[in-house]
């Protein structure tokens, strides 16, 4: 590969922080866990933070803590990473999809109310590609209907809408730390909430159903092992300390792409939405017009054959075969999401992407578009 889709950015200081834990006796449930949770809650601005071993387990625990299960419905978006929907299914509930806004690509708040039924127990919106646009409206609707919001902020660490940080919109919110995220712990996630009862329940559920004061082998409820080790937490603390620098590096890469692709009418190039501070997660361009999925896939394949790693963030969740089959979805159910899904090209994007890397990607993309989608 000449340019990878994503690369981690780990400093010597971070390696040292991990090694220090490895030299200590506290590899799990030690001081780094509490320190990471506190630093994270302080940064985003919530009362409590509960670290878990992935964003997926974080979403699942939020649903359980809110008492959501079999026979319940949770409203979410079909344009997301699959875990937003599968976490609902893991809890035994049904994901009820609502089409997206064609500009923000987030769940369309105006379409939510028509999907609320007596079975609806929560709304699970996703800040897709880190974008919090429309979240104020989603929260108003939830409040009018007395529904909790589980904010899937897995892609949005450091974003804000009208000065309000991503992660503070929901009754509960979840971040994720897979290596392509703004900060990484290798694998990991964080649940945030202002509600002590929900945070305490998540602490118990992530640790085999133990209660705060129970003995190690006494268990109060059905729980899981979703703990995040102190090794991971040490990396997370050191990464979080660099979040401003990380955001600036990603913003710089986004600006290079915007400048180099601005004049190409075959592409819709992402920009910072009005009123938002976008913490760039990925750089996803879209093919303008109504490309077929074959045309888009041909472009992806050709880019890969020229050693530029690209991806199709995201295929429509409701059309993943096992979900379509279980809930009876078919093509045409959510036309805006489906049309967006056919047009996306995620370009290489990470902290230390150089201007030369961006130039190689943009030059190659334009050549590939010339071959596949000549300008009319
Ligand atoms: C929107 C969204 N939700 C949930 C997740 C799940 O996070 P994890 O991979 O840590 O389980 C991700 C991670 O890619 C994500 O992007």
Q: TL;DR?
A:
The protein is an alpha/beta fold. The protein has helices spanning 12-22, 31-44, 55-65, 83-90, 135-144, 196-206, 230-240, 243-261, 293-305, 321-327, 335-341, 355-372, and strands at residues 48-52, 73-76, 94-97, 120-124, 150-152, 160-161, 164-165, 172-176, 189-193, 267-268, 276-277, 283-287, 344-347. The protein has twelve helices and 13 strands.
Walk me through what this model shows.
The protein has helices spanning 12-22, 31-44, 55-65, 83-90, 135-144, 196-206, 230-240, 243-261, 293-305, 321-327, 335-341, 355-372; strands at residues 48-52, 73-76, 94-97, 120-124, 150-152, 160-161, 164-165, 172-176, 189-193, 267-268, 276-277, 283-287, 344-347. Helix 8 packs parallel to helix 12. The longest helix is centred in the last third of the chain and has 19 residues, at 243-261. 37% of the residues lie in helices and 13% in strands. It has a four-stranded mixed beta sheet with strand order 1-9-8-5, sandwiched between helices. It has 376 residues and is α/β, with parallel strands linked by helices.
């Amino acid at each position: 590969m000449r340019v990878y889709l994503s690369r981690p950015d780990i400093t010597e200081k971070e390696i040292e922080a991990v090694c220090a834990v490895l030299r200590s006796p506290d590899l799990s449930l030690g001081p780094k866990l509490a320190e990471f949770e506190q630093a994270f809650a302080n940064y985003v601005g919530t009362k409590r933070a509960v670290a878990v071993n992935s964003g997926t387990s974080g979403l699942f625990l939020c649903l359980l803590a809110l008492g959501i299960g079999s026979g319940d419905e949770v409203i979410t978006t079909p344009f997301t990473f699959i875990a937003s929907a599968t976490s609902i299914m893991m809890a035994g509930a049904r994901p009820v999809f609502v089409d997206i806004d064609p500009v923000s690509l987030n769940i369309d708040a105006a379409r939510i109310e028509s999907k609320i039924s007596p079975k609806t127990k929560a709304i699970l919106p996703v800040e897709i590609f880190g974008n919090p646009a429309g979240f104020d409206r989603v929260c108003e609707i939830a409040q009018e209907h007395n529904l909790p919001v589980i904010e899937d902020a897995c892609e949005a660490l450091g974003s804000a809408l009208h000065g309000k940080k991503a992660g503070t919109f929901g009754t509960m919110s979840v971040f994720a730390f897979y290596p392509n995220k703004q900060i990484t712990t290798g694998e990991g996630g964080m649940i945030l909430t202002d509600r002590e009862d929900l945070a305490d329940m998540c602490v118990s559920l992530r640790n085999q159903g133990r209660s705060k004061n129970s003995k190690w082998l006494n268990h109060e409820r059905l729980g899981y092992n979703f703990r995040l080790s102190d090794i991971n937490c040490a990396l997370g603390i050191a990464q979080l300390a660099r979040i401003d620098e990380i955001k600036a590096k990603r913003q710089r890469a986004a600006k290079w792409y915007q400048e180099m692709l601005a004049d190409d009418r075959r592409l819709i190039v992402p920009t910072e939405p009005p009123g938002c501070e976008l913490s760039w997660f990925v750089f996803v361009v879209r093919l303008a017009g109504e490309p077929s999925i074959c045309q888009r896939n041909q472009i992806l394949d050709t880019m890969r054959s020229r050693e530029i790693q690209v991806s199709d963030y995201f295929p429509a969740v409701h059309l993943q075969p096992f979900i379509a089959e279980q809930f009876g979805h078919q093509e045409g159910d959510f036309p805006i999401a489906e049309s967006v899904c056919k047009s996306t090209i995620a370009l290489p994007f990470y902290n230390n992407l150089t201007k030369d890397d961006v130039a190689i990607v943009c030059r190659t993309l334009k050549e590939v578009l010339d071959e596949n989608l000549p300008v009319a």
